[in-house]
Design goal:
There is one protein chain. The protein is 71% helix and 0% strand. The radius of gyration is 22 Å and the shape is rod-shaped. The protein is mainly alpha-helical and 55 residues long.
Length: 55
């Protein structure tokens, strides 16, 4: 975000391009990576369903 701030001050044309293409792609990539890490490290649930649960 700091890079967008400085691009907006010193180079408007690069700001528009970076905001529309680079940063949107980076945010989507970050979201995908966080989701993949979350899926990898969530605890697995037991295969015991309600019918097989101990009483």
């Amino acid at each position: 975000m700091v890079s967008l701030f400085y691009l907006g001050i010193f180079y408007k044309a690069a700001f528009e391009w970076a905001h529309l293409y680079i940063w949107q792609a980076l945010i989507m990539l970050d979201t995908l990576l966080v989701w993949m890490v979350w899926i990898r490290y969530i605890p697995e649930r037991d295969a015991v369903g309600p019918a097989n649960a101990p009483a």
